[in-house]
## 1
Amino acid sequence: MNSSKLDQWFAIPSVAVGMGIFCNALWGTAFPFIKMGYRLFSIETTDTASIMCFAGVRFMMGGFLVFLLGSLIQGHLLPLPKGKALVGSIGLGLWMTTLQYTFYYSAVALLTGSMGGILNSTQSFMGVILAHFIYGQADRMTLPKALGCLLGFAGVLVVTLGDHGSGSAFGIFAMLAASFIMAASGPMNKSLGKMANSFSVCSINLAVGGLVMLLIGLAMGGSLTPQSPAALPVLLYLALVSGIGFWIWQLLMKNNPVSRIIMFGLIIPIVNVLLSALLNGEPLFEWNYLVALALVGVGIWLVNRPAPVKEKQAC
């Protein structure tokens, strides 16, 4: 399948909805598996250097998998972007992968899966607001979108009430910082997707960003030593999640309004809550989690519902 056919397919509204749900559900499984990976590689939550090594290897593997997938689908080795597209792809890797996930992985070590997932969902509302200022009338803020954003932030406030067990104010800050970086990456993804092959952009993004994280981790004295046969399959799964997820996200951003697509990030906390309870023994039926999930669910509906068609008055 060539790039133009992929673009046409991802621009179909029903396909965009289905792939948006699939992509974010896939990402939603990452949080509990990352925490599982820490245990399987015997990485302490305070061992920032080894955490960087873990993340770096994951994203480098993800970039390699995207390169293989793209080459197989297109029937030839992926072409490297040139000029501004190459510089932009490297910059995207440093911004979207290295910087975002430095904050994200720090937050994972300090927050419960449920708490972290819901805080991470704020990227959706940040993205809607940024799209309004960047694209103007083409992706403007409307009253339903504004109400959806307010309900989403209300959900974040609700989940942080009381003794939520996050254990760290820095963890909350780090996750919100990661969410902002992800939201601000939407327009960059959209622009680069029009300049170069989406597989190539995604592959360079992950590989470069992951390599920088690995080098930083090694320079800080980090290491990555599996303590169980299950460690490598978990790392490979996380690499697949990042590779497939980022490629789908790249195509969705390229061929659809940013505000419509980024709102599907609200699916992430729902998957996080379910898997965290199942895999890590964390509480599921906490009242503030349930209320927060209800609020973000209404928020995504408000932002994505079609605008009412105004009937023309008869002359």
Note: The CA atoms of residues 16 and 161 lie 35 Å apart.
## 2
Amino acid sequence: MSDDLNFSACVEAIESSYEFMLAYAAQGRDKEGVSGDGPSIRGFLISLSTALGALDGALKAEIAVGTRENIAQLNTFAAVLGDDAGRARAAIDLALSVPSISSQLVDNLNASIHLRALLTSLFLMDEAVQAR
């Protein structure tokens, strides 16, 4: 993934990563699985961090393509979503800095108000963009 992700690709990457995180947290792992032990939590967190890094540019491009009827409101809320994404990305990157990611760490990450605010804001924005 890179900064050239479009908005819907960012939403998909964020949503699929979060779904994997929920499943991983329920596994009760003390440390990350070894290679070949299924999908990697680290890989999903990297994908999530990358999507969060691309989100602002992708959203600006999405807003620019649409109609002008609610552009002021979309831009105002895009700034809120950008703040949420920055805070959530800081939490994700903190988890990535740990040598072995446990289920408990991911459970705490899932419960983080920063990640929850991001998801709520992201889904609100996605619906608003789709409704145009």
Note: The CA atoms of residues 49 and 111 lie 17 Å apart.
## 3
Amino acid sequence: MITENGLNANYRHFKNSLHHILDIEDQRDTVTRIVNGVLFGLIILNAVAVVVESTPQPEVVYQWLARFENFSLWIFLIEYILRIWVCNENKQFAHPITGRLRYMITPLAIIDLITILPFLLQLVGINISMLRILRTLRLLKFARLVRYSKAYLFIKVAILSRKDEFLIGFFLMMVTLLIASSLMYLAEHDAQPKLFSSIPAAFWWGVITFTSVGYGDVYPVTTLGKIIGGFFAIVGISVFALPTAILTTAMLEQIHIERDSKK
């Protein structure tokens, strides 16, 4: 006869095991690999379905795509509910109410909700013209693939290990952008009052110049403006490349640590 304590123990064990499976805490576990492999495959197939759906196809193809979409969305809805249920197995979301609410506003949980939002609206009988447009939100499922990527774990650890350097790099980028935009405003305002109407307006020139995009819709025409623009275009290459260098170094360190741990 199963006692109440035994039922509670089984319940706790099942909930904890499900949490480990959904959070991929043990990639060597067969059940974890199967469950997350199925979810991974559904995400890829849904992305393919979105692309195929946008092209001219026989009506029967659209019907099969609709059936596959409904099947997938039921799976993703169940997965979303289960993730909310087991999330408080994580100490970060331990409280049964506030913990779950905090989990629901995490980036990946928000993406999970957004991707099934049109489906949820249809389930409660809300039929609006925007639903067809909202269906393209299924492409956001690609962002969910980070759960299954080892590279994501490297990037996450790398960023956290270099967060101070990233903050300094970001601050340096903003200061450089502010100085460049201010000087460009002073040099170009009289010649181009509409394009360089204010320092915030000059920020657009600064962003597209520093990122080497250069759309060509905003550019200096005065001699002083060209000198300032050329100087900060060169400076911007090194300043805006700084976070990339920091991230690359941090990721290489994590790779070396991973390799050393396996030896």
Note: The chain has ten helices and no strands.
